[in-house]
Amino acid sequence: MREITAFADICSVFRNGRHVASFSRGARSGDEIVELMIGRDYKDVYPDKSGHAASAKPVLEVKGLSWGDCLSGIDLTVRKGEIVGLGGLDGQGQRELLLSLFGVLRGLQGEIKIGGEPRSIGSPRGAKRRSVAMALIPEDRKTEGLVLPLTVRENICLASIGRLAPAGFIRKREEKRAVDEAFQMLSIHANSADLPVGTLSDGNQQKVVIAKWLLTEARLILLNDPTRGIDVGRKQQIYRLLRKLADGGTGILLYTTDYAELIGCCDRVVMLYGGRVVRELQGDELSESNILAASLNLSESETAVGEPAD
Amino acid sequence: MNGPRFWLTRNSGAIFAFVLFVAMFVIYIVKNGVGLRMGLVMAVANKGVLLALVAIAQTLPVLTGGLDLSVGMTFVLTNCLASALLNGPPWMIALGVIAVMLTGVICGAINGALIVYGRLQPIIATLATSAIFYGLALTIRPIPGGTIDPVVSILTTQLFGVIPTSLVVLLAVVLIVWVPFQLSMTGRGCYAVGSSESAARMTGINIQRSRLTAYILCGLLASLAGLLLTAMTLSGDASVSSGGTYTLSSIAAVVIGGTSLMGGTGGAIGSIFGAFVLRNVSDLLFVFDIDPLVEPFIQGLILLAAVSLGSVRVLRAPNRLQFLGVGR
Questions:
Q1: At what angle do helices A232-247 and A202-214 cross, to 10 degrees?
Q2: Complex ipTM above 0.85?
Q3: With DSSP H G I counted as helix, E B as strand and the rest as coil, what are the percentages for chain A, rounded to 5?
Q4: Residues of A in contact with B180 (CB under 8 A)
């Protein structure tokens, strides 16, 4: 959006494959443009924060987590019902942090507690266990999130398959119920659950990824830039869903490259720089200038001058 | 595209193989001019079922994105073992059957372990074990022969006088092995691993168990084919050409039946018809009075036609990236 207003001479808006409007630069405000894009009033993109999570029990506690050169001495807490944002410039160890929590990385140092109990998570399969109950919604849905040739149904049930197949064999009725539940919960648009998931739009594919993990009934959900490449209307649905999950007691750790999302969506934001936690922002501290300053690892006085250190 | 149409697209390979087989069979019966005689049906069934069993076996590793080059030699090894064990009182024969099937399971488990735990390329690992299995078969049966209780040949007769027993065995394998496999967690895991290993891993699928199961079932099914061969020939033969032919024909049957060698799509039903198509070529040549020496030539043409069927879909796709797994 910013790039469009900065560089474009004439802007055109398309929605659902149709031309909606064209106008020259500056003729419409950002909110007006977004309204054109989603086809309805642009209000309350971000749901209200509940704010009562501050005293809840922690679902994830990380102490001194290090991995190679990428992560050093990370301390982090996510409470029940809390959405914690991971901020910072791209590539400051946020992805590695999520992967390390999910048991993908080897040779970790430090302590990870889930629900107050120390756990060592050796694989995504281990992270999925009932005693941990973690879910990771990966960045790349086409290679890590979804098995594109398989059907929507098969993808939705892939993560929770152990629950749908108690004796090792999938129960068709339970599978159907799970798929119906997922379709309703996330309002997935697909002609049929028996189509390959690769035929869905990006937004709906992302909903399938989220649905498949929600069905595992995770108590901690990690998200790696879940709204990248998704249209504004669908983003809003995802924000609402995250808040609804948090209100239901799920702990959420959200990495996003979008500052507005960090400010609008998260109860608390942990800023990473060079694999370290440099600042934690919450409440009124959550502002674009604070986030930008922490992203560049500047102290507040330096930003005031507007001269980056290096 | 809606559900049923997608079902057609997804199973187009199996449907192609089925239609081709039916057409070939009808032409064969009509041209032969003696009608639908039991003898003819038996001959077609017995010839087809052996390769069909080996082809179902091959389908499983292929679905996971692998390949089993030792399937033919497992078949030969179990045939030789059966020719040494299947005699004596009934309990001895029963024990022998179990021992032969167990051998198939062990062969498959070795392949699976090498690939899953040893992280070897399936092609190389099974090429090596293929030679090992052949060596063992030669040790058991240096020259063709064996003393086998003729009671075993019951498997090559008819049930109730009309249904070839070998077809019943095939149906039993489909119902007892393939259908549950498809409905199982492990089976779903095999499809997922074959389509996208990284997504399967990030979803917490038990990749190792899925792969291992595919190779073990492959060995077991090859041993069933070995038992059936023993019942048909009442002898064991450590034949290098037989092992090689069955391995290569099984891969061809899998491909004709619409299973992708890239893994993740297809199924055993297509492979069965693929096997019957390949096995029926010689019969057709016979009724048309064509030199049987051109059989491999015709089989090659059918294989090419089957593979081309897949490429036609790529050419007609609205988005060409779709078939590279990139676009949508």
A1: 10
A2: no
A3: 40, 25, 40
A4: 169
CA–CA separation, A278 and B44 (whole Å): 75
B202 and A128 in contact by Cβ < 8 A? no
- C-alpha B285/C-alpha B264 separation (Å) is 35
Residue-wise pLDDT for A85-112, tens only, equals: 999 888 899 999 999 999 898 888 999 9
Nearest by CB: A124 against B2, B192, B201: B201
From the list A102, A104, A146, the residue facing B199 with the nearest CB is: A146
Say which residue the tokens 């992805």 belong to: A95
Residue among B179, B187, B220 nearest B206 (CA): B187
Q: Would you state the structure tokens that stand for residue A219, as one six-digit string?
A: 């108590």
Phi and psi at A78, nearest 5°, equal -125, 125
**Amino acid letter, B140:** I
In chain B, the DSSP E strands lie at 158-159, 163-164
Chain A segment 99-118 residues within 8 A of B by beta carbon are: 102, 104
**Residue B292: CB partners within 8 Å, gap ≥ 6?**
B282, B285, B286
Best residue in B203, B259, B260, B265 for a mutation probing chain A (most A CBs within 10 Å): B203
- This prediction has a pTM of 0.86
A153-183 residue pLDDT tens: 999 999 888 888 888 888 888 899 999 988 9
Taking the C-alpha atoms of residue A71 and residue A108, their distance in angstroms, rounded to an integer, is 9
